[in-house]
Amino acid sequence: MDVGPELVPLLSDRRAVVGWMLLALLVTFLATRFVTRAVHAGRGPFRDASVGGVHLHHEVYGILLLLGTGTVEFAYRPGAPWLQLLAVLFGAGAALALDEFALWLHLEDVYWSREGRSSVDAVGIALVVGGLLLVGANPFDADRAAGEVVSWATVLFNTAVALVAILKGRVVLGVVGVFVPLVAAVGALRLARPRSPWARWRYPPGSHRRARAEARFPAGRRTRWDAVVDLFAVPPAGRS
User: Fold this and answer.
1) Taking phi first (over 0 means left), then psi (-120 to 50 degrees means alpha), and beta for anything else, what does residue 36 get?
2) How far apart are CA 83 and CA 69, in angstroms?
3) Alpha-helix residue ranges (DSSP H) falling in the chain
4) Using CB atoms within 10 A of its CB, is residue 142 exposed (0-12), middle (13-18) or buried (19+)?
5) In terms of Cα–Cα distance, which of 181, 175, 160 is closest to 127?
6) What is the largest CA-CA distance in the chain?
7) Half-sphere exposure at residue 86, Cβ-oriented, CA atoms within 13 angstroms
């Protein structure tokens, strides 16, 4: 999309804020995983935080940071340098909260279990979205030359295609496809993973599509992404 000269500084400032937020998200996630591994292994000065005998998960601090930065942004709309500081705090809060995404999902402490790997997936998706925003991708940047109705119809269609991809278990393709519609279309047209919601609804047991899905994605199948997740989600030697 072509932008006028008056919008260039605005877009530049917006990307700078996203950049600070993304950097804080990544650094906080890496630091959090380092600390939690040290706590789990019983190494170093790090210990679990508790109040009155109740263990405080770090997602609590993340949620408080998200609530606080959101409230300040909506209530006061600060400019530089406070806006950049809010972006850093928001990114840090998002990392702390998403690092325990699996706890939200299962309502139990599954941090080092197989279910806990979804937390790393969630942070990875957040980084992908942040990266797309950083390079200027915008899901609402439809060409409005044909009119508002056509523009919004295009946005809704792209969102629907992305949702189908996500329901088929192609989460990364679906999320990226919100910004790049062609990517979502690829995910939406491909075979659903057998444990995805789409497969449960549309691939009945014994059907040809169910058999194809299970052959394409057998139980225990590993991908390159699994090796990356192992770096963060495999519990260290130490405590049982």
Assistant:
1) alpha
2) 10
3) 8-41, 58-76, 82-98, 101-106, 117-134, 148-167, 171-179, 181-189, 197-202, 208-216, 224-233
4) buried
5) 175
6) 62
7) 20
Distance in angstroms (rounded) separating the CA atoms of residues 210 and 228? 28
Sign of the Cα pseudo-torsion (216, 217, 222, 225, in order): positive
* Rounded CA separation 155/161 (Å): 10
> In 10 A of CB 10, how many CB atoms?
10
Give the pLDDT mean for 4-32: 81
Residue 137 CA, chain-centre distance (Å), reads: 16
Amino acid making up residue 227:
A
Backbone angles phi, psi at 44, to 5 degrees: 75, -175
- What confidence tens digit (pLDDT) does each residue in 110-168 have? 898 888 988 999 999 999 989 988 887 776 665 555 567 777 787 788 889 999 999 99
Tokens of 195: 């444990």
Q: Is 0.85 topped by the overall pTM?
A: no
Of the CA atoms within 13 Å of residue 225, those in its CB half-sphere come to 12
For helices 148-167 and 181-189, the axis angle rounded to 10 degrees is: 40
SS3 label, residue 4: coil
Q: Which residue is associated with the tokens 């549309």?
A: 202
What are the two backbone dihedrals, phi and then psi, of residue 54, each rounded to the nearest 5 degrees? Answer: -100, 125
CB 46 within 8 A of CB 35: yes
Sign of CA dihedral 227, 183, 22, 107: negative
Residue pair 190/168 in contact by the 8 Å Cβ criterion: yes
